[in-house]
Give the backbone structure.
Amino acid sequence: MPEAENFESVSKRGSQEVARFEQPNRGAIGTLQHWLHINPALVPLIVLVLSILVFGALLGSKFFSPFALTLILQQTAIVGIVGAAQSLVILTAGIDLSVGAIMVLSSVVMGQFTFRYGLPVELSILCGLAIGTAVGFVNGWLVAIMRLPPFIVTLGMWQIALASNFLYSANETIRSQEIADQAPLLQLFGATFKVGGAVFTVGVVFMVLLVILLAYILKHTAWGRHVYAVGDDPDAAELSGVNVKGTLISVYMISGLICAFAGWALIGRIGSVSPTSGQLANIESITAVVIGGISLFGGRGSILGMLFGSLIVGVFTLGLRLLGADAQWTYLLIGALIIAAVAVDQWIRKVSV
Amino acid sequence: MKKLLATTAVVVMGFAGAASAQAVTACLITKTDTNPFFVKMKEGAEAKAAELGMTLKSFAGKVDGDHETQVAAIETCILDGAKGILLTASDTSSITTAVKQARDAGVLVIALDTPLDPIDAADATFATDNFLAGELIGKWAAGKLGAEAANAKIAMLDLAVSQPSVDVLRDQGFLQGFGIELGDPNKWGDETDPRIVGNDITSGNEEGGRKAMENLLAKDPSINVVYTINEPAAAGAYEALKSIGREKDVLIVSVDGGCPGVANVKDGVIGATSQQYPLLMASKGVEAIAAWAKDGTKPANTEGKDFFDTGVTLITDTPVDGVESIDSAKGTELCWG
């Protein structure tokens, strides 16, 4: 056989080494980049600890007290719970603009079913949770089966849920005193207990447990891995046997259910059932998610990061108010944080290319 | 473009006017249609319009501050051949261009609740004297504390960072009534009196009220007087005080006179509130438009003021000397929302 036709011989000229997956020496910055890539909640955690330290140094015991620090937790509880719902949706490369509206609608259903129709409060709460889940199902069905963009679907649902809320409630507030008299279960999430100087509410405990539970599910169950897979590349996920449509619908339903729980927690927080509250919850939850390092392109990030993200916003808000700064400074700094967070996210993403 | 539009409007109005001479059309444009205050205002206007055989068309911004929708509503009303517009403006100075267009087209424009900037940009203004509303609760709080007023620790729960005129007037009225020296009376938050612990914003709802109260309590836990921009904010502040067990020894004062707020006065949540009358504002406004459509009379102002004062009354169950008030039972009869 002439040498020119012996194609196999060419391989001898190539590298004889077996392919290896050892890490090249990245240098300090590269190592950091890689490290952040595997621990997406690390950046917000560092920022959170730093901001607590800075405000603690500036304000002393006024800020660095169990009372003030747990107050931040209380003020963050609603955004944290809604943020958990938002995180699930954003992990699938979607977005849910209707979270706040679902929350308020559910809380109004819980209140009005009890006070207008005289249903037992437990049943009303179940109805509220069911409404939230149902709205989530409609979102999920439109996104997964009708293949409409999540932004559009939830933009529409935001308006629909909010308008239903106003029409159904006739803008009437149910007062805190009436609820405390007749249906105290509605205020369950507002119940406080003290540990030393620290004040916790059931809502805060619920938020923390919810985030830990979801973090576990997302990391260690098949469903959780499917959520990431769908967000990263739905076609690849489909080819690997993931039920993409089912996963998407379930994500939106669970998101709706969590928002309904947030509605229950909202009653505990403000005491009354107020159809005008929670108007900014969608923006605030997206802010928490983004500052928490969850990628808006889907498939990457940790729900713990979202919790840190919402706490960062809480720390800045309270810290700056205690310093006596104009409230606008809070918005300005949070705006800068959002942009910085996305910039860091883009930089970390380069590791995987 | 605007001129063209205005001309078209006048022409169209000519046709429309000829076609439907029997029923006078009036427009009501509110900031939102979700706030109970505006919901009641709409009810008052509708009732009066039905009584007088007029057609009322209602418009509202999507959120407080939604200026564009209000401008579009004014343009629609001009085209529709309305005789008058009742307007609660979101952006009191920018809206004046659209208001001028309407007035040039022969439409009577009445500002309800919120004066335009300048106030004479509208044909008339029917509003609560918000400074007086604040002053009443300020005087009441000072009277209630007596000599202790000199050592009061006051939390000011305002509306928004943009400081709309209602927000400033109530805040400054309260401080003046309480006996605190004002800085610039067109701005809140610039006072130097050490009795003021701080100002924070509430967006006028329960959630904001609670958060603002918590923030100020973190600053100084010994607060014993709380001024609130409205009753939902007051209810939120009360929840914050309750969570630390201080709800019994703090005076909360507010403005509005909505039914839930008056019920809160009765239950001792709010110490005193200044009640205003949105239904009256709206029905007076509709009457004024009817008069204008009939023979071109314009409404007159209350003597000594540059607007028509629809009145304000202090509601409390623990009256103090020298401040006139009614009790919560009477307030419940007059309440709205």
In short: The beta strands of chain A are 192-195, 198-201. Residues 76-278+295-301 of chain A form one domain. The mean pLDDT of chain A is 90.
